[in-house]
Queue: 2 jobs
Job 1
Amino acid sequence: MVHTNVVIIGSGPGAHTAAIYLSRAELEPVLYEGMLANGTAAGGQLTTTTDVENFPGFPDGIGGSELMDKMRAQSERFGTKIITETISKLDLSQRPFKMWTEWNDGPDSEPAHTADAVIIATGANARRLNLPGEEKYWQNGISACAVCDGAVPIFRNKPLYVIGGGDSAAEEAMFLAKYGSHVTVLVRRDKLRASKVMADRLLKHPKCTVRFNTVATEVLGEDKPNGLMTHLRVKSTTDDKEEVVEANGLFYAVGHDPANALVKGQLKLDEDGYIVTQPGTSLTSIEGVFACGDVQDKRYRQAITSAGSGCVAALEAEKYLADLDVSHQEVNGAKAAPVL
Ligand SMILES: Cc1cc2nc3c(=O)[nH]c(=O)nc-3n(C[C@H](O)[C@H](O)[C@H](O)COP(=O)(O)OP(=O)(O)OC[C@H]3O[C@@H](n4cnc5c(N)ncnc54)[C@H](O)[C@@H]3O)c2cc1C
């Protein structure tokens, strides 16, 4: 069992930004990057995409995996110890906090690691629909992030589709209307779940149409390596009638699942399972436990916002550890003082 000042769990922009700050502060952080944790490679969600065009500092864009490799190298450069294992169990009920790795987490297993502070940066996953054709055209027409991908040339002046009936779907559709020739929102039921304001705005938008009682059933497209999607098969939920429509983009707005399994029942979560942090901070409901990135952000979910919150988590962890150190010194000093 190893003890360190601080352990970071996760491997996306939030985790690596925290690692860069903490290692430069000579706090010798250990970062567990996971081994296909939550089905995603170490490096997080950006490893599943091609070009990232909105991360500052890369005027020509940069591949998602390349960006994460650079962040990882920067973490290591300043001394972060990166362990390619998944944390499968975390005990936040006692100090130091204890954690176990996958396959070594039985009831009698010793914790792999203990730490005075923990940063949770486990991210989130966009929900998918597992439609036929989805795997083939993922990132070749299908996306779960309009803000990330909407501006790329394949969607310009093309018919685009959004699936979902909530506020995110409405917001994404109106955002995409800047780029596509027209945006159609497919809603399974006969009404939108979105707030009245958003629903009204969407329904009145000149470049958006809402098709109620309609689901997508198959994604169709070019039959070649890296071929693009060109059509979508849709079905009415009222009479099962099918139709193939021209569609060069399909955006899922059916929610995200924050990776909260480690902390469920220990940290305060909101109604959608996101870790609750005090506004503007990374402070969670347990002192010494910090959260950053998508696992605590249901609104923005961007690489740059995750990185920003990773910086905040590192600075708050640093302060927490410094305060802890002072109080230890005071306790030890008091014990060592001779009784006169
Ligand atoms: C297809 C796609 C394209 C995107 N494009 C853009 C874009 O162009 N621009 C942009 O700004 N944003 C984009 N995003 C969003 C961006 O990727 C996320 O907002 C960002 O990656 C979130 O960072 P994060 O630090 O929360 O961690 P994540 O990237 O979510 O990574 C967390 C990772 O931590 C690891 N992990 C999880 N649990 C454990 C555990 N128990 N033990 C150890 N390791 C664990 C896993 O590897 C996990 O994937 C895109 C997202 C997707 C899915």
Job 2
Amino acid sequence: MLDQTKASTQIRNVLSELDQALTNNNIDDALKLFADECYWRDLLSFTWNIKTLESKEEIRLMIAERLVVVRPTGWATDQEGLAKRTDNITEGFIRFDTAVGYGTGYIRLKNGLIWTLLTTMQDLKGHEFSRPIGANHGEHQDEISWAEKREVELSELGVTKQPYVLIIGAGQNGLSLGARLRQLNVPTLIVEKDERPGDSWRKRYKTLCLHNPVWENHFPYLDFPENWPVFTPKDKYADWLEAYSKLMELNIWGGAEAKHASYNHDSQKWTVVIERNGEEITLQPNHLVFATGLSGSRPNMPNIPGQDEFDGIQQHSAEHPGPEGMEGKNVVVIGSSTSAHDICAALAKNGVDVTMVQRSPSYIVKSESFMKHVLRPLYSEEAVASGITAEKADLLNASIPFAKFADFMKPGVDAIREADAGFYQALEDAGFLLDFGPGGTGLFGKYLTGTNNYYIDIGTSQMIIDGKIKLASGSGVEKLDKNSVILEDDRQIPADVVIYATGFNSMEGWAAELISQDVADKIGTVWGFGSGTQKDPGPWEGELRNMWKPTKQEGLWFQGSLIAHARFYSHFVALQLKARMEGVPTPIYGLDD
Ligand SMILES: Cc1cc2nc3c(=O)[nH]c(=O)nc-3n(C[C@H](O)[C@H](O)[C@H](O)COP(=O)(O)OP(=O)(O)OC[C@H]3O[C@@H](n4cnc5c(N)ncnc54)[C@H](O)[C@@H]3O)c2cc1C
């Protein structure tokens, strides 16, 4: 308690000095409050961008350009009960105002000076969050009902009225963003090529359950109920998505596939061709959002010599329905990430002879260890009990600059490595190739740098250790012949079925496919922050490229990633779109960096 009070007081004092310096336009005084090593991550409030400034000099340049317009005031501590001090670090939540919005954030002081600062816009002035009234009472009672209004809205949008925003894809990202935009009264239509939201999960192999626990997975405006399972089975999750879309009153066209899009710079509108029930419909939204799936929608099918000659069945993991009908067959699963593990486990449990082919190392973490050492402080029952709701955990997560990501992640990964040393040894003894993510950052490091070969172990690893799932590691596939898979090191594995658990294609691929290669080239890579790893080449960006922020193609946005990211970042995409619709100036800082 004493430490909490001291921490709040220390933060309050620094904020007060920052307030004064910025109000007096005294940049030198403001910079004196920052440590020599310092990071300022801003989500919209200063930059109308998602940007991390990684030195005093970068902060100076940003403030010099933006201060007059942003006019920040009212810097204060927030959630004081959660402020804390450990060794030389003091940290806590903060709030502030700008000329156009209200902000919250998080600050870390190192030896009394600002080490990391997160500033985020939470509300636009004049468009603050409020609960819709729903019904007019008294003499102005509604003449048409809610249901009638919904019917009219659905019949008009995209037909006689153009949406301001068109979202392609009704997965967790399209729906989260749709709900945020609905709350902000931004006319939005979502097109989904499947019939119903959730179908992409319904189509996946039947044993799939979400790997992240329920506390991490709440949706905007709607938490999962108390009795929801910790790990959601995929068909239950599909029903949640569908129910969510109804409860949030989202305007969705099912069975509607976006075929082509082009942008008209004069009208500042898109022309998007949609195929629905065999009919072509042209829509003209001001903004187009790709919520088409970061990983999961565009199967990456490798080209391997001999695929034409192979006598058996070949399928991508996305098409694999489950182990039924595979009894008595030899199945080879190519890949060693989540899908490969889940599929192998289900096959082995059904008595199928299955071999996993692992070309390169994967990161494996036991589910309970991941929860205990990585997720528990942020997304767990204990976290909620200590006041860390999912929203606060999201801010805490966002407060870590990517440049310091390894320092924050590695201790948890190391602790697991030590606690589960026997498990990792047994896996290696079984021939499994392990790695621990770039710079030892484990699962998140792999995910954020686009290397998705990881698995949160819920028992499959023991089946590999026990030999119930055969393993062929250390070599890629050279070719197939009529009835076997032949590896580069000449090993030959008999096969009646080959399942390619080889991942999914990139987001920029969607842009090339639906818009043009020129536009895809203009915007560049989507995802990754330029860590210099194989799938995430430099230059260093310090932010996930093109995600949730303006792209170099006007009116084009990307909304993707895990449920927690969908929840958190949809808020910022929605605010950017709302501001544009309302004509609030949104000068972007650092778009060309
Ligand atoms: C085996 C497996 C397990 C996973 N487990 C988890 C997990 O536990 N937790 C988690 O957060 N993530 C998990 N993921 C990742 C998961 O796929 C994504 O997090 C999630 O699906 C992303 O949601 P999304 O809304 O971005 O994309 P998606 O869910 O892929 O939704 C995109 C939608 O866009 C639609 N679409 C695509 N193109 C068009 C078009 N041209 N016109 C109209 N509609 C179109 C698709 O039909 C689809 O419905 C897993 C993935 C796999 C493969």
